[in-house]
Amino acid sequence: MHPFRTTSLRRAAVALALTLVASGSAVSATTAATTASTPASASGGHSSGGQSSAGATKRAWFTSWAQSQQELAPTPLRDQSVRMITHLSQGGGALRVRIQNTFGTTPLTVDAATVGRSGQGGAAIEGDIRTVTFDGRPEVVVPPGGEVWSDAAGLKTRAQDDIAVSLSVSGTVTPGRHTGAFRSNYLTAPGSGDHTAEASGSAYTQTVGSTYLVSAVDVHNPALKGTIVAFGSSVVDGTGSDNCGPGCTPDGTDHRWTDDVARRITAELPGTRQLAVANAGIGGTTSSAACPRNPAGIRGLDAASRLDRDVLDLHGVTGVLYYYGTNDLANGCAAAQILSSYDEVFQRLRAAGVKVYVTPITSRPGYTDQNNLDRHAVGTHVKKRNNCDGTCDGVMDFDQVLKDPLKPNGINPAYDTGDGVHANIAGQRALADFVSLPMLLSSTTRR
């Protein structure tokens, strides 16, 4: 076993690195804190409360879970309830949820909402169920293209809790969704009405593999130091995280590398230096909107187009883990186009006080020679001076982790799901183990 696979030794290594950071021997970082925002009412634009703010001194709300909306579901909801299971990276004394109608063409009416701890049996809830309100009211209408953050709900939570968010949707509306939840979520039958307060979950007879309407959960926890957002395509979203190899059945859910990073933070960082982790990956997307073979289905989902909604409108964001480029190359982008998109996104993040950590583009056996030349050019730029030649704040070389040591333009067979592109559960864990926690924590200090 690698020595740093043991928690005690890894804690010792982290403690030493944190001492170096505190003494000034390590690179400094940016404060990208968010002040505690008041509950947002439904709007047709982005909530201003989530914008990161360098120099903010008092923070209370941090985004602890996220899944970015990307399209409309194939089937409308008709006077029925949905129960979406969210997995918190950190807990707190209260929580609030974001509901989005980003891709909707008609108003979304939510006439009841609750939160509670997800039970062991499907849609069941264990313990208290808390009513969720919006500006003090039990119902809210979210206009097409709009979103809303709820009021605070007094449910105490802990790191790694699964929280069920239940919404009763009135009328007929096609919901926005995040396509791959990598877990089961639940719907009641059409026409069944409000079952948000039901603990047994027996009315939730339909199962879906997507996450409907709910795109983020905040926790109220002033002890946290920040939220780290992983931003990218399917390699961030979690494709492969349900694959443990032929003939193997995964043990539970939440095996993305970002989930493993969150667990490492809880286990290895001191209690006074804890961070939340949010996942803003969308499969199939690109950093650049200009790749000539970008399909119509990802139009408007490039990194720059969704940066505000999926990253900067979250709360307490101090750092971003940027893992893009694999689809850019496959869709015909050259190195110059990819790096141009990097520069735009990195400038906006850093202007908002958010630190940016970047991985070189990871390998694919299907890349052409020109793809690999472009991949090498992007990787060389990213690794230059260990800070993208001064345009980012640090490097996490996931290509070094995943590549086959004998065939470096392909994935290590031990980490390959079989498609040559995505990491299996072992690969996800290897990526998480490679991430420097002191680097992440340095995002909470000034540059």
UniProtKB/TrEMBL annotation:
Domain of life assignment: Bacteria
Print the keywords alphabetically: Hydrolase, Signal
Q: Specify the signal sequence span.
A: 1-28
The terms under GO molecular function for this entry are: hydrolase activity
Q: Is the Hydrolase keyword given for this protein?
A: yes
A Pfam family annotated for this chain is: Lipase_GDSL_2
- The question of whether Hydrolase is a record keyword is answered with yes
Q: Which residues form the SGNH hydrolase-type esterase domain?
A: 230-430
* SUPFAM superfamilies in UniProt: SGNH hydrolase
User: Region labeled Disordered — which residues?
Assistant: 36-55
- Listed PANTHER family: GDSL-LIKE LIPASE/ACYLHYDROLASE, PUTATIVE (AFU_ORTHOLOGUE AFUA_2G00820)-RELATED (PTHR43784), GDSL-LIKE LIPASE_ACYLHYDROLASE, PUTATIVE (AFU_ORTHOLOGUE AFUA_2G00820)-RELATED (PTHR43784:SF2)
Q: State the protein's name.
A: SGNH hydrolase
This chain's source organism reads Streptomyces aurantiacus
